[in-house]
Design goal:
Blueprint (H helix, E strand, L loop, with lengths): L5 H7 L17 H10 L7 H5 L10 H4 L4 E6 L2 H12 L5 H10 L2 H8 L3 E4 L4 H7 L3 H13 L7 E3 L11 H9 L2 E3 L1 H8 L5 E9 L3 H13 L4 E9 L7
Parallel strand pairs: 1-6, 2-5, 5-6
Antiparallel strand pairs: 3-4
Helix pairs in contact: 6-9
Bound molecules: zinc ion (ZN).
Zinc ion binds next to loops.
Length: 242
């Protein structure tokens, strides 16, 4: 019997279209094909050009960086936004694999991730998970884990959304986000017995950091000694909640 590991499956995946321009590339040579297969970026977009845009920086607002350190790789410009939207809303689940690969090409960022004992995806509500079919943060985490050997731990759960965020005022939205997360008791209990010191919260995008801050608080409430970091694919300066 042939058994495939996740890693084999990831290698077999072939991008349907370029992650960035959403086009099917012209016939490619062998090297271009290999790069397209690994990064999901076509020869016209070229990974090298694109890479110049990346910046693994701490995007958190100034007061927060004192206590909550992290890295975001891309500014949420039009090109990145389109790739993220296809990832979240158009079923391009495999974009998470490419995003993780792009990020882990940065050796210092990879070393920084490897210092942690767990990657913790920001959870979706059960309702959202059902309609979307996957949690994009978890998909992104799985490939990060494969590339760094840091395990994925789903330590957090999300309460059902009671009201659509759009109908709420800014203060109400903030409160709603603060109360949206809880600890997954079983996963946390198993994790705590290992005496781990550092975890990385993982999400596709950071906007206000309200979500990341809320998740950090939930983890620290029960595990005050934990160092909680964050890693997001993109970041934007805006008070909108995605
Ligand atoms: Zn392209």
């Amino acid at each position: 019997m042939i058994s495939f590991s996740f890693s084999d499956l990831a290698d077999l995946l072939y991008p349907k279209a370029c992650v960035l321009c959403d086009k099917i590339p012209e016939p490619m040579n062998k090297e271009e094909k290999e790069r397209f297969r690994y990064f999901g970026v076509c020869p016209s977009c070229t990974w090298e050009n694109f890479r110049a845009k990346s910046r693994a920086v701490d995007a958190a607002p100034a007061p927060l960086t004192e206590v909550f350190r992290g890295r975001s790789m891309f500014t949420y410009d039009e090109e990145i936004r389109d790739a993220v939207l296809r990832f979240k809303y158009e079923g391009m689940k495999e974009n998470g694999i490419y995003f993780a690969r792009w990020m882990m090409e940065d050796a210092s960022l990879k070393a920084w991730v490897k210092e942690a004992q767990a990657l913790v995806p920001i959870p979706l509500s059960a309702h959202r998970l059902k309609t979307r079919g996957y949690n994009q943060a978890l998909e992104f985490c799985k490939e990060l884990s494969r590339l760094t050997d840091v395990p994925v731990r789903q330590l957090l759960a999300r309460r059902e959304d009671t009201k659509a965020l759009k109908t709420l005022s800014k203060t109400e939205r903030q409160r709603s986000v603060e109360q949206a997360f809880m600890l997954d008791a079983a996963a946390a209990a198993a994790f705590r017995t290992e005496g781990a010191g550092t975890v990385v919260l993982v999400d596709d995008i950071a906007t206000t950091f309200a979500t990341l801050k809320a998740c950090r608080s939930v983890l620290l409430e029960k595990m005050p000694d934990l160092e909680v970091r964050y890693l997001t694919f993109s970041a934007r300066e805006s008070d909108e909640i995605s």
